[in-house]
Amino acid sequence: MLTCESLMLQQGSFSLQADIAFAKGKATALIGPSGAGKSTLLAAIAGFLAPVSGRLLWDQGDLSNLPPGKRPVSMLFQDNNLFPHLSAAQNVGLGLRPDLRLSEQQKSKVAAALTDVGLDGFSERKPSALSGGQQSRVALARVLVADRAIVLLDEPFAALGPALKDEMLDLVRSKLIAASKTVIMVTHDPADARRIAEMSALVAEGAVQPPVATNVLLDNPPQELADYLG
Amino acid sequence: MAHSAVPVTSRWPGVAAAALVLVLTLGTLGAVAWRAEWGGGLAAADWAAIRFTVLQALLSAFFSVVLAIPVARALARRRFRGRSLLITLLGAPFLLPVIVAVLGLLAIFGRGGIVNEGLEWLGLEPISIFGLHGVVLAHVFFNMPLAVRFILQGWLSIPAERFRLAASLNAPVGRLLEWPMLRAVVPSTFLVIFLICLTSFAVALTMGGGPRATTIELAIYQAVRFDFDLGRAALLACIQFGLCVVAAVLAWRVTGNDPMGSGMDRVVQRWDVARWGADYAIIICAALFLLLPLAMIILRGLPGIFDMPGTIWVAALRSVFVALGSSALCVVMCLALALRGGAMVSVIGVMPLAASGLVVGTGAFLLVFPFTRPSDVALFVTMLVNATLALPFALRSVAPAVGQVQADYGRLAMSLNLSGWSWMRLVVLPRVRRPLGFAAGLAAALSMGDLGVIALFAGQSEETLPLAMYRLMGAYRMDAAASAALLLVALSLALFWICDRGGRADADM
Amino acid sequence: MRNTTYLPAVAGLALCATGAMAETPVLQVMTYDSFVTEWGPGPAVEAAFEAECACDLQFVGTGDGAALLARLQLEGPRTDADVVLGLDTNLTAAARETGLFAPHGVDADLDLPIAWTDAEFLPFDWGYFAFVANADATPVTSLQALADSDVKIVIQDPRSSTPGLGLLMWVQAAYGDEAPALWAELADNIITVTPGWSEAYGMFLEGEADAVLSYTTSPAYHLIAEEDDSKVAWGFDEGHYMQVEVAGKVAGTDQPELADQFMAFMVSDAFQSVIPTTNWMYPAVTPAGGLPDGFETLLTPETSLLLSPEDAAAKRDAALDAWRTALSQ
Predict the structure, then answer these.
(1) How many domains, chain B?
(2) Which of A125-139, B31-45, B265-279 has the highest mean pLDDT?
C-alpha cells in the first residue's frame, strides 16, 4: 500500500491536497484536466518535491525523507528518459548499478531485458539511432532491471502514435503489472486508463479523489471529469 | 538535501575553487592595501585615465562583438574542408603575447606595412595606426576571435530539432532561433571583452600613441613602480573592480534566457542557407584580418628558428609544463564551480577579469614573501594565477553546458540514484566534453603566453618562454626573439588544438 | 639549473637540501633581468667572483631598474639581498630614502665624465642616452632640430621605463623651465610611447620610426655582435644625458664582509672588462686592456648632462606632468 497521508503539495501559487492510498500490485491511472496537478503528485512520490505537510508511506515506512534514488520508485518522464551519449545497454545498465560497473551476470540481465522488450541486437545503438518507440522500450527495459516496487509513468508515451502507444501500454501490462508492480500513470486519454489501469483517481480542483474502479469512474463520471472528457 | 533539483555532488571542490579565486583577486588587493601607506587620493590624471579606459573598452567590446556576429553566423552555416582548422587558427590572436601581436599588426597597418604600401601604390595618403582607433583595432584583433568562438558556440548549441521545426514551418530562423540565442550570448560576450580591455595596458599605450592613452592599469603600474604609492594602486584596483561590477550588473540585466532546450544530438542540417557568397566573403575578410598579422609573425620568426639559444627550448618545455598544470587546475576549478551554479559562479566568473595583473602579482608576492623565497614557488604561483585568469573563459563555456545537463537529466539521474563521481563520470563529463576541451585548450594557451606574475617572481631558473622572449628583446636579440615568438605561437596553438580536438572527437557523442 | 622547483612539495625538499649544504656562504645580489641572462654580464661575473671569494654568488633578477627598486621596497628590511645592483641616478634618491643601504666604503679611481662622490652608491657602468637611427638617414643635430623636423621617433614611457625617465630628465636638464615648450614641439614627432625599451627598439628595427631613444652604445652591439654598421647614434648640441648605473650594499646584510668584497670586486678588472660587450655600456673603470674594438667608433658627446639624484627626484613629478600635458594635446 502506497499511502498519501494528508499530503499538502505546493508549487508557486498552485497547491494540491492528496489523501489517498494506492493498492499494491495494481495499476492506477491519474486522470484529470491539464494543470490539475497529476505530474505534481508524481513528483512528490518520486521525491522531487517536498510536501508542505503530511506523510508518504510505503508498507508503513515513511518515504518522505528519502532522496529520489533511495525510494522504491522507478519513473519514466515525458522526455529525456535516455542519456543520448550512452548506448542502449548502458542506459539499461544504469537501472542495475548507477556507476555502470556491471558484473557478467548483470550484463546478461541487461541483454535479457532488452530482448524482453523486443530490442535484441540493438544494445550498442545510441538513442539517436533508435526510433521513438524503440527509445521507449529501452527506458522500459531499464525499469524492468531496476526492479523497484513502484513505477511512475508521467505520460512517457504521449509522443508516440496510437498503435505504438498501445503496444507500450501492453508491454507495461505484461511486464510490470504482471510482475505485481504498483504502477501509477498520468494520462489524458480515458482509453489508456481502460487499457491497463484497474483503478483510476480523478485529480481536479486542487485535490486528488480516492481511486475507484476505472470502468465505474469513466462510465459515470463526476461533473468535473465529464466536463473534461466532453 | 533530498529535494534538490540536481544530483548530489560534494560541495567542497566548488567552495575551495571559489576561495582560491577570492584570495588571488580580493586577497592580493587586500595585501597591497594593507601594506600601503595611505596618502592623497586620486590625481586629475588618474580620472583622465579612468575615462579613457572606459571609452576604449566600450568601443573595443562593441566592435569586437558586432564584427564577430556575422563571422560566427557564416561559420555556423557553412561546411567546408579545413573549417575546424580555420576556426582554431582564427582563435590565435587571442593567445598572442602583446608585443608579438603588436609587431604583427604593425607589419600590416604600420608605416611600412602592407596597407600603407598599397595606399602609396594607389597614390593615396598613408594612414597612421596610432591613436584611439589603433587601440580599438588592436583590441578587436585580440578579442574578436574570442567573441567569434563564444557566439559560434551559441549557434552550435541550437539543437538540430529547432532548425528542422523552423524549416518545416517556413519560419524565419533569424527571429525565431538566432535572435533569442544572441540575446542570451551577446551581452556576456560583450562583458567579457569589455573587462579584458578594461585592464589593458601595453596595447593601449603602444597603439594609443602617447600618454593620452593612459589606462587604469598603467596608472596602477605608475603607482607601484614609479611612485611606490601602494595606496593609490589599491584604490585604482578597487575602481577597476567597481567598474567590473557595474558592467556585470548591466550585462546580466540585458541578458536573455537561452530558451533552446535539449535535442537528441542529431547532426545539424540547415535549410535556410541558400546564399553562400556573402558567407564566404565574410569568412575570407575575417581570415585576412586575423591571419595576415599571424603570417607576418611566422615569416619574421622562421629564418632563425634553429639558431635560438638552447635555453629557449628549456624555457619552452617549462612553459608547456606550467600550461598543462594550469589547464588541468582550471578545468577542475571550472567544473567544481559550474556544478555549484548560482550567482556566486557568475561573480567568481568575472572577478579575475577585473583584477589588475600587477596588483595580483604584487599582492601574491607580499603574501608569499614572509614564508618562502618567491622564486621557489614561482612556477606554482604562476600555475595558480594562470588557471584563475583563464577561469572566466572556461566558466563562460562550461557552466551553461553543465546547467543544461542538470536541467535535462538531473531528475532522471536522481531517480536512478546516480550521484557523486558516477554522475560526473557517466553523464556530466561526456555531455560537456566539447566546451571542456575548449576550456582546457584556452587555459593552456593563455598560460603559455602569459607574462604577468612570472616576471615578478621568477629568477633565472624559472624562466618561461614569454619571459625568455622578452629577455632576448631586452638584449638586442630581436631575431632570436622573433623566433621565440613563433615557437610560442606554435606551442600555444598546438596545445589549444589538441585539447579542443580531444573535446570534439567522436562526432555522435 | 639550480633551484629548479616545480611544486611546493619539491620546494620543501629543495629547501632541506640547501639547508644541508649551507657550509658555503651565499651572497645574494638583486639586479635587473638583463644583467643575469646568458648574454648579460651575470655568468662571467659570477664565475670570476666565485673563483676568489669561496662563496656562492646568487643573482636574483627582477624586471628593469624601476622594478628592482619597487621589489626592494616591497621586501623592505626583511630582504635577503646583500647587494642591490642596477639602480640609476634617477632612482638613487628614492633608494636612499628607504634607509636600506649602508656606505660602500670603496675608494676607486672611476673613469666617468663627471665627478662622483656618493657614500652609498658606487657606479659599475655608465652610458649616454641618444637617439639611434639608420646611418643613411640625414642626422639630426639637436633636440630643438628634432622638434622642428618631421622626423618620426618612438620613445619610452617615463612612468614604466628607465630610458623613458632618462629622456624626461634629459629635456629637463637641457631646457629647464623651457622643457614643457620643447615637449609641445616634440609631440608631433613622437609616433608612439611604449611601456619599455624592448618594444620601442623592436618597432624601430621593424621600420616603424626613423629613430628611437636608446644609448650611444647601441650601435656597438650591431657593429660587434652582428658586424652591421648601419646604425648610428645622433649627436645633439645640447649635450647628452647620462645614465650612471650603481650598486649599493644592503645595510641589513648577513654577509657584510662578502658584500664589501663584492663591491670592491665590482670596480676591478675582472668585472669591468665584462661590461662593454655584455651590458653594452661603458665600464666605470676602464679595464687595463682598454675598450673593445668598435667602441672607438661611437659618438662621444662634448657635453655630459646629469642631474644630481636629489635634483632629479625633486624635479621628477613636475617634469612628468609637463610631459603628459604636452603629449596629451
Answers:
(1) 1
(2) A125-139
Copy the grid coordinates of residue B2.
533530498
**Statement to judge: residues C103 and C251 lie in one domain:** yes
- Cβ distance C197 to B474 less than 8 Å, yes or no, reads yes
CB contact, 8 Å: C323 with chain B? yes
- Shortest Cα distance, chain B CAs vs residue A216, angstroms: 33
C141: domain range? 127-242+299-327
Residue C226 grid cell = 652582428
> Would you tell me which residues 75-104 of chain B have a C-beta closer than 8 angstroms to some C-beta of chain C?
99, 102-103
User: Which residues of B are less than 8 Å from C73 in CB distance?
Assistant: 228
Amino acid at site A202: L
Chain C residue with minimal CA distance to B128? C191
Fold classification of A1-72+182-230 is Rossmann fold (3.40.50)
In B78-201, alpha helices (H): 83-90, 92-95, 98-109, 114-121, 132-156, 160-169, 173, 179-198
The continuous run of DSSP H or E covering C60 comes out as: strand C56-61
Residues C200 and C57 in one domain: no
Residue C1 located in a structural domain? no
Average pLDDT over residues B218-235: 85
pLDDT at B322 over 80: yes
Helix/strand/coil percentages in chain A, nearest 5: 35, 25, 40
Are B262 and B408 in contact by the 8 Å Cβ rule? The answer is yes
Whether B150 is in a domain gets the answer no
Q: Does C215 touch chain B (CB under 8 A)?
A: no
Question: Which of B262, B269, B404, B412 to mutate against chain A (most A CBs within 10 Å)?
Answer: B412
Whether the per-residue pLDDT at B23 is higher than 80: the answer is yes
Tell me the chain B residues in contact with residue A69 when contact means C-beta distances shorter than 8 Å.
Answer: 414-419
Taking CB atoms and an 8 Å cutoff, what residues of chain A touch B414?
47-48, 67-69
- C-alpha B349/C-alpha B361 separation (Å) is 19
Nearest by CB to B209, which of C7, C191, C205? C191
Task: Give, in order, the Cα–Cα distances in Å from A67 to each of A46, B46, B309.
Answer: 9, 57, 63
What pLDDT was estimated at residue B263? 53
Q: Which residue of A has its CA nearest to B421?
A: A99
pLDDT in tens, B424-467: 889 889 889 888 998 999 899 888 887 767 767 766 667 889 88
pLDDT at res. C262: 96
- Whether residue C164 is found in the same domain as residue C189: yes
Domain span at residue B4?
1-35+305-509
> Residue C22 falls within a domain, yes or no?
yes
Whole-number Å distance between alpha carbons of B194 and B216: 14
B 136-195: CB under 8 A from C: none
Considering CB atoms only, which of A46, A69, A84 is closest to B265?
Answer: A84
- How many domains does chain C contain in total? 2
> CB–CB of C207 and B110 under 8 A?
yes
Q: Is the ipTM of this complex over 0.85?
A: yes
C-alpha cell at C162: 628607465
The predicted-structure confidence for B291-311, as pLDDT tens digits, reads as follows: 899 898 899 889 888 888 888
Q: What is the mean pLDDT of residues C39-48?
A: 92
More confident: C161 or C125: C125
* pLDDT, tens only, B372-410: 888 788 888 888 988 998 898 888 888 888 888 888 888
Structural domain includes residue C145: yes
| Structural domain contains residue B352 | yes
Mean pLDDT of A172-191: 90
Pair (C143, C209) in one structural domain? yes
Q: Considering the domain boundaries, does residue C210 fall inside one?
A: yes
Rounded CA gap, B148 and B89, in Å? Answer: 12
Residue B405 sits in a domain whose CATH number is 1.10.3720.10
Q: pLDDT at residue C179 above 90?
A: yes
Same domain flag for C43 and C165: no
C55: DSSP letter: S
CATH number of the domain encompassing residue C43 = 3.40.190.10
